[in-house]
Amino acid sequence: MYQFIVNPSAGNGRGYHVWKRLERQLDNDSQEYQVFFTEAQGDAAGLAKRLTAEKNDPKVIIIVGGEGTYNEVLNGISFRGLLTLGYVPAGFRNALSKGFQSFRMVNRQARKILHPKYYRLLDYGVLTFGEEEVVSRRFAGRCGIGLDAAICHNLLCSRMRQPMCRLRMVHILNFALGLKQLILAKPAKGYILLDGTKKVEFNHIYFISFMIREESGKKKKKAGAEEDGGRMMVYVGNSAKKRKMVSILMDMLIGLRRKERGVRIFECSEAAVHLNRPLAVHVDGESCYCQQDLEVRCIPKRIRMIGS
Questions:
Q1: Is residue 165 within a helix (H) or strand (E), and if so which, with residue range?
Q2: Does residue 291 sit in helix, strand or coil?
Q3: Residue ranges per structural domain of the chain
Q4: Which class is 2-117 in CATH?
Q5: What gap in Å lies between CA 145 and CA 3, rounded to an integer?
Q6: pLDDT tops 50 at residue 58
Q7: Residue 56 near residue 275, CB atoms below 8 Å
Q8: Angle at the Cα of 187 (from 181 to 189), degrees rounded to 5?
Q9: Does the predicted model carry a pTM greater than 0.85?
Q10: Coil, helix or strand for 285?
Q11: Looking at domain 124-301, which of 3.40.50.880, 2.60.200.40, 3.40.710.10, 3.40.50.970 is its CATH number?
Q12: Are 125 and 138 in contact (CB under 8 A)?
């Protein structure tokens, strides 16, 4: 039986409309299912924890929402039993939706969920922080410290978020908030330790981002080729001149990373970050407040996802 966790408020109410279209497809297919709606922050994590408490029964959980909903479910589920996930993007932050059919293709997504032709094994990351109380947070797509996290924090509490979402101008809002945070930003000094062996020190750090590296499901792999999992990309934005960060900010907001524009790029399985002062931190766009020391690691091929 399919179990749906739906955030009806995702994408300024888009989550509800996406679910109603999915519901019609499910009813036409005479498919047995349960649906659980979230009402407040943290509900998705609680539902996921409760649904996966019994480790013996195989479960199929479909997430309908944005990055925040997906992240909550990922942090609430237990991997002790046979678990399969599906994802229908319905939010405005789409870093996770690149490997899935968009909300505009709900009918196609429903058919793929009800009649899956293949499954993918995806990586996820774990961010650990805290001194007196150690906290671990899973993330599916990205996490970061510094400028990109400050933008996420500002967006979460911005009064203009919903009006700009209704007008479908959220990217303009992101860039405006990015310029504001860049003006306010004070670079930090620190280092990053890659795979416990390679230590790289930086001055004038504006952000450090970690992204789970996933091959596109549409790419055909060569016969006999092994999947290269358990690796993540690390992007360090640093510059002695703040004005040079404007072009980097534009690339960061549209998802590009270019070495020639002042971003250092690394690849690793785990990393430790130490800065000389706390900066804002996020996981999949959700706030982890301000931290000074982080540990990040990639867990390979742990999420069984319905292919799309």
A1: helix 161-166
A2: strand
A3: 2-117, 124-301
A4: alpha beta
A5: 34
A6: yes
A7: no
A8: 150
A9: yes
A10: coil
A11: 2.60.200.40
A12: yes
> What is the rounded distance in angstroms from the CA atom of residue 280 to the CA atom of residue 273?
13
C-beta of residue 210 within 8 angstroms of C-beta of residue 274:
no
**pLDDT of 119-178, one tens digit each?**
999 999 999 999 889 999 999 989 999 999 999 999 888 888 778 877 777 778 888 998
Alpha helices in 29-139 (DSSP H): 43-51, 67-76, 106-114
Least confident segment among 98-102, 194-198, 269-273: 98-102
d(CA 6, CA 194): 37
Cβ 64 vs Cβ 6: under 8 Å = yes
Phi (first) and psi of residue 137, to 5 degrees: -130, 130
Residue 200: other Cβ atoms inside 10 A: 14
Whole-angstrom distance, CA of residue 304 vs CA of residue 302: 6
- What are the helix (H) ranges across 52-124? 67-76, 106-114
Q: Which residues contact 127 (CB under 8 A, 6 or more apart)?
A: 136, 137, 138, 139, 143, 210, 281, 283, 288, 294, 295, 296
Distance CA 39, CA 37 (A): 7
Q: Which among 81, 17, 19 is positioned nearest to 54, based on CA atoms?
A: 81
